[in-house]
Every structure is written in C-alpha cells, then in structure tokens.
Amino acid sequence: MKMLFTFYNPSGGMETLNRIRCKALKQKHAECHLLYSIDGEGRKNIKDIPTFIMNEEEAIRRLIEREKYDIIVVCTDVTLLMLMRKVGYQGLLIFEIQGLGTLKTANAILKDISARVMETADAVLYPQTSHLKQLLPEHLPNLPHFCFDDPLDTQDFGYAAYPPKPFPIIGWVGRIEENKNWRDFLLIGARLLNQHPEGYLWIFGDPSLSEPREKAMFDKWVDGLQLRQKLVMHANVPHEQMADYFSIIGDSGGLLLSTSILEGFGYAVAEAMLCRCPVLTTDSDGIRRFLVHDVTGKLYPRTNINKAFAEAQSLMRDIPLRNSIIDQAETHIKAHFSCTKYADNFFGMLRKLKGINSRTEQL
After folding, report:
1. Which of 40, 282, 344, 353 qualifies as a cystine partner to 11, CB 3.0-4.6 A?
2. How many Å apart are CA 138 and CA 41, to the nearest integer?
3. What single-letter DSSP state applies at residue 103?
4. What are the start and end residues of each CATH 3.40.50.2000 domain in the chain?
5. pLDDT band at residue 276 under the 50/70/90 scheme
6. What local confidence, expressed as pLDDT, does residue 176 receive?
7. How far is residue 292's CA from residue 333's CA, in Å, rounded to a whole number?
8. How far is CA 244 from each of CA 117, 237, 248, 272, 339, rounded to the nearest angstrom?
9. By the 8 A CB rule, do 125 and 355 touch?
10. Is 14 exposed, middle or buried (0-12, 13-18, 19+ CB in 10 A)?
11. In the prediction, which pLDDT does 210 show?
C-alpha cells in the first residue's frame, strides 16, 4: 500500500507528525511519501522517506500518475485537495486538520473551505482535540470523520543524561506569532528571572516563519523587559537534538513553558514530557489529551501571569511533586502515544473506508 502525506512546508509540528507517522506505518509495510509545496528548514530532519517539494500543477500531475498512490492525506490546504482530483487522482483522498490557530480563526477558515472539502474529500481526519471535535462535524457534516491521537517516537526519542547546568533554564518552542502567545512567555520569564537571576530563557524555533510585525514587537518587549542578556535563541535545531535540549532543561531544575492560545496536539509539550522535562502550559485544548494538572504537568489560565508564576515556582521548588510529575509524564506518553497505537488507528480507519469508492469512480 502506497501513501502520500502533504502539507505547505516541512516545519514545526506537521514536519514531526509526517515523519513519525511514516515510520509508524512503515512498520505495517506501508510505503509512505511526503509532498510539500515549499521547502523549509525542517527538511533536514527527514531521512529515508521519499520527499517532494513542488507546487506546480503539471509536476504534481506527473507525480500522481507515476506513483499511483492508494491513499493521499492532504493537511489544511484545500487548494491542493482540489488539485488532486483535477490532475486525475481517483484513489482515497483524506482531508486532515491538525490545528487552525485561535477559535475565531478556525471558525472563519472552516466556513470558507467547507463546501470545497465536502465536494472533494472522502473523509476528514483530526486529533482528539475538543474544539476540533466540536467544529468539524458542524462545518463538515456529510463526510466520514476519524479522530485519533497523533504519534510520538517513543522508541528513539527520549531522555539523555548530560552534566547538569548550574542554572535553571525556562524553555519555549514556537513561532513568533499570535497563537503561540510569546508575550506571556516573556512576562512569566521575566518574573522567574527576578527570583532566579542566574537562570536563562531558551527559545527554539524557525525564524523564517516569524511574522515580521510580531517579531518587531517581540524585540521591543525583550528590550523593554531587559531580557536581552538572558535570552538564548536556538534556531532550527535538528529534531533529533531536541531530545537532548529537553533533557538538559529538565535536569537544570527548569521547565518548558507553553503559552499557546490553542493547540491541536502540542508536539513540543508531549516531547518534553517524554524527555523528562516538566511542563507548565496554558489550558490550550489539545494539551488536555496528555497533561493533567499536578499529575503529568501543570496548567495555568491564559493571561494569568501571577498564577503562572506561582505554578512555575511550585514546579521548580517542590522537588517531590516535580519528580512525581516527571515520572508520570514520561510513563503516560510512552503508554498512550506510541507509533504502534497510531498505526493501528490509521489502518482501522482505512478498513472502515474500504467500502467507499472515490468520488471520481462514482461519477
């Protein structure tokens, strides 16, 4: 069985998801390829998976004709979804949503694309995220829906021991844009550095994806809060090395801080937990799938900087609670988000769709 997974560019959580699920499905003897419309820094993470960078109709037509895919999964890009039928693809076509930003943005996008998706796709796929589980049946009522958790590489990505840093590190992963809510990170980070002046703030991301206006505002805030000397930017770290960084942050006595408004899944949080790095995060929907307050991590109400500061202090100073959270978080991720579980769910979806002919064949 041959499958193609598509997205705009190989970066962030989608690059991670596509790479890990290809590994998961390969274990079930599926051949998986990737298609991205434009290139990106995350491409260097991809090894041993046929990957195509193209956005011209004729090039995509030749690819589809040559490879004869049984299944194509198109994430978010409704234009590409429709193009697949236009270039003659007659196999199973699944439209995937992993996250669409804030609730307001998600509603607007789904309202805009719903008619085209229902005309073109055979099914819709999304993670176990409450706002997506609410919105998608409302906007796409006439399609089969499949909803299951994304996978993590629980075998090859995990904790690694290094000599501990002599200072606590507060980590943050994301793009400098509204939904990732970098303002909360800087405000909370500044409060924590007042209590832990030896500490540092580490930011991980792809600067090429930052929104220029947001980046200018970010720089203004950094200088206004006098954080420049305490802020370390880690740009385009290879994914396999992120396990080392998460491990180092955890062993430093610090934590990963996630400040997102909404997350479809939240790979950075789940991967930090897998690497024994404790997490403090906003209650950003998708996070609820794996983070239980004071059990596998800590939650705070978005914009409540005082509460976030108090929870971070608890996580850094209450050592028995910290150790309990670290142990339970790692165990929980390994038990519930493995590649094996994802592959079983994915092939279960295909078995249910087996009787559905593509729309092209029905004509």
Report:
1. 40
2. 36
3. H
4. 2-151+339-362, 169-336
5. very high
6. 93
7. 12
8. 40, 11, 6, 10, 21
9. no
10. buried
11. 82
